[in-house]
Amino acid sequence: MVESTKQVSENYLSTEKGYADDWAAYIASCHMTAEEALDYIRTTNTQEDRAAHLVDMADLSARSTFVRNGNPWVHCYEEQQKLATTDSSAFLDKMEQLFNAGPDEVPVLGKYRVGESQRTVVSVGTRVMIREEDGSDRPYLLLRLIPVEYLQNTWAFPTEFPLAEISMIVNLSINQNLRRAVDMAEHVNQAKTRFLSTMSHDIRTPMNAVIGMTEIAKLHLDDAGYVRDCLDKVSASSSHLLTLVNDILDLSRMQSGQMKLNLQVFCLTDILQRTVERYQKLLGEDYQICLEQNCRVWVKADELEISRVIYNFINNACHHTGEDKQIVVRQVLDGKKVRVRVCDHGEGIPEENLSKIWDRYYRVNKSSAAKKVPGNGLGLCIVKEILQAHHARYGVESQLGEGSTFWFELEVWDQELTQK
Q1: Is the Cβ–Cβ distance between 141 and 98 less than 8 Å?
Q2: Which residues make beta-bridge pairs with 291?
Q3: pTM for the model
């Protein structure tokens, strides 16, 4: 069977663009500056021969993750503009095509030489939002560079790639199995990359706060009040870091099948009451959290883990509630089932995102307001693991502009214990 370059490379180039898409999504969600974005990519990029360029489409100035003599700037795109030839015009048109491409399009820019790294490359890319000095966001072109020698060594590409067509004789069944294996490997690799990129950022932030505030405190040892304020911030960042590490370890334990439930009979209503009261004291009068129930219900479950589910649902509602800052917790008895519902009046979640919110690190709302919401994106994934271990039903209902309701169901242990 004969396949053209496009057929052979389609899946591969889509995967390469997927890395750029993942980077761009995370950079935008964290409201990063250009320097922060490049540092993030350097930290998370698992392939040393894949540089990334961040191009300002206004003047074609660009910075690279590859730094030479302390200088990240590259000038290959500005040089193309200065050439003013037919080929350079086509090159710049292709850059615009990458900049404006849809999520399912994979245009390729190439081939061209980057003088600073002395490499000839092709590249794929996407648009990314970068925070400017005034706090506003502006779109840049994020390119992921693929060395031509890699393509030649891997697939025996001719020197004139991508202008020439390449023919390969392949066995159809072997090729299909190989593609499936490659797709699975790339999926695992991308999941690992997203995990490392998210964790490196989330761990680095509180760690930098601990180091920074400690150093600042050393400079003000004669000011007890200032030092105390620094130590309070160190303590808060350390607690956040410990919570993050504990969540990672817990999630790893759950997903590896090592979670063991300590099943016992307890009053679910009492747990709800205590959690609501604790949160009300913690948040003060600015928030109103109420519990609606008309009976006391007993269940057989792991009391500690179910308490954790309730805590996560209420915590999530507090972070996303609307201007009224009201959260309603409802216990609804339905025959042999009891359903717990936690409702807020926040922005709500688009319907197409409802199934994704249980994935780890997934964040639905990428608005500037959402970036200020605390948390590490693990809470709902941990909730899912706990409830699935209990064989419990769970879900979310949401309307944009009206709010969201997270819920779960458990079997009532003994209806005779239920007290009206």
Answers
A1: yes
A2: 329
A3: 0.47
